[in-house]
Amino acid sequence: MTFTVWAPSAERVRVRVDADVHEMTRGDGGWWSAEAEGVNYAFLIDDSGEPLPDPRSRWQPHGVHQESRVYDHAEFDWTDDAWHGRQLAGGVVYELHIGTFTPGGTFDAAIDRLDHLVELGITHVEVLPVNSFDGTAGWGYDGVLWGAVHEPYGGPDGFKRFVDAAHARGLAVVLDVVYNHLGPSGAYLDRFGPYFAGQNDWGPGLNLDGPGSDEVRRYVVDNALAWFRDFHVDALRLDAVHALLDRRATHLLEQLAVEVETLSAGLNRLLTLIAESDLNDPKLVTPRERGGYGLHAQWSDDFHHAMHVRLTGEDSGYYADFAAPDALTKVLREVFFHAGTWSSFRERAHGRPVDTRTVPGHRFLGYLQDHDQIGNRATGDRLSATVSQGRLACGAAILFCSPFTPMVFMGEEWAASTPWQFFASFPDPELAEAVRTGRRREFARHGWGESDVPDPMDPATVERSRLDWAEVERPGHREMLELYRTLIRLRRERPELAGPWLPDLRVDAAPDSSWLVLHRGGLRLAVNFGPGDVTLPLGATKALLTWGEATVDGGAAHLPPETFVLAGTN
């Protein structure tokens, strides 16, 4: 067996395999290699006696600070040979966190709930990061060994069983990956080579364009390709790509898009790249033939912000600009609210317009809630904690009747009452206290008392964040679940609801957006957020779906507060 590692500046590298230490031979490009037999291994750099895990480890059964273990991808018995993927267009995405999706918090436990997603009408299951991070519980964004699957979830075989089971049910799997930084504990990459270049808001960033960056870029791209090839995932959600600092002529994202397209052709399987970006730059999802990076989709925070303000009335911080009366209608028509326009939060112009004639709406994921927008609130409160059921229903109707690809956060479909709070479990007491104190200080600046902010290191915080599946059958929750199922079914049965071309969308709205009407082909969605009854002419007489006491009579919708009607001409 050949062990290899990239350590270009090292004078001496050894590999400890089981109980034996072997000298490694330096080869081209700073790569070292040695032949040895064994299962558990770690590297020793120069004269340091500290054994370090493999930066490209496939398996870390004892945590991120311990030795790596040999893992052979060929030994897993896949059953998804007939699976060729699912396109994102026309799909519905469901975001979940393995550790809190079920009481068991494992891949195998999550498999038992996949049928619920099928019955709901989900097509793509997006899993928060599953790479190895320090501790047992966490969101996954503090990963440090990107190729090794978190052992408490079930390790690499567990994740493969989950993907295989999803494919057997017709579900595509989207994996959230983090290439913009590494976590604060177990990030040993800089011991091996020039992996790091500066810091961002979350930790050390990668050297993507400086000396030695060719291999660092390969480290990222090879990791992405491995998730597609070895774990059979269908899509990657790329976390916060605006923090990838790359001044090369070919940006890392474009390089990644090119290589994923090549792999897709070789595997004869649809592979998708979805970005999270704060840039409001359509270049990310513009095809390379037209000068873009060629990614397939990106999240749309502007849709979330506009909907959040409309549903809750909150208008502080980055929500302030979205309190504008035309914010929601502008986002529905143009995708970005900030499109080269002034952002009061940033105190500068921000974004660039989307060419809606050539860029379809399905390349933008719309959502009412996600892990960040819930978990980064002081108490991790969902919309259901503060918003009436009627307003939740109105928000869901707009989401599923919009031209965007809808995304649902786990439990949203039944208005789950459980919060989703920020949690971690770093074993290092000093690091744990630093995270705890930093969290409290952050929210103290916004008027929250220390006792109001959950302790992220307390196991009770994780327990509070687990879904309560018993709620599904309870009054109120049961009706919301049925609404979500019906909206998703109608989106599938009526192609005009999933139509992605924004120029085909017409939005009529009150000056204060207290009511609006979406025209989707021959269908009309009329929504009343306001405090009083409204009657709106629709030119549609057949009610397909109503909420509350809303009715259709003579081609007009009669809407009490916080109700909607979806009607058609046929």
From TrEMBL:
Keyword Repeat: no
Alphabetical UniProt keywords: Carbohydrate metabolism, Cytoplasm, Glycosidase, Hydrolase
EC number, as in UniProt: 3.2.1.141
Pathway: Glycan biosynthesis; trehalose biosynthesis
First-listed, main subcellular location of the protein, grouped into a coarse class: cytoplasm
Catalytic activity entry: hydrolysis of (1->4)-alpha-D-glucosidic linkage in 4-alpha-D-[(1->4)-alpha-D-glucanosyl]n trehalose to yield trehalose and (1->4)-alpha-D-glucan
Subcellular location: Cytoplasm
A Pfam family hit: Alpha-amylase
Glycosyl hydrolase family 13 catalytic domain span: 95-491
Domain of life according to the entry: Bacteria
InterPro entries, per database record: DUF3459, GH, GH13_cat_dom, Ig-like_fold, Ig_E-set, Trehalose_TreZ, Trehalose_TreZ_E-set_sf
Keyword set includes Manganese: no
Protein family per UniProt: Belongs to the glycosyl hydrolase 13 family.
Descriptive protein name: Malto-oligosyltrehalose trehalohydrolase
Lineage of producing organism: Bacteria, Bacillati, Actinomycetota, Actinomycetes, Pseudonocardiales
Gene coding for it: treZ
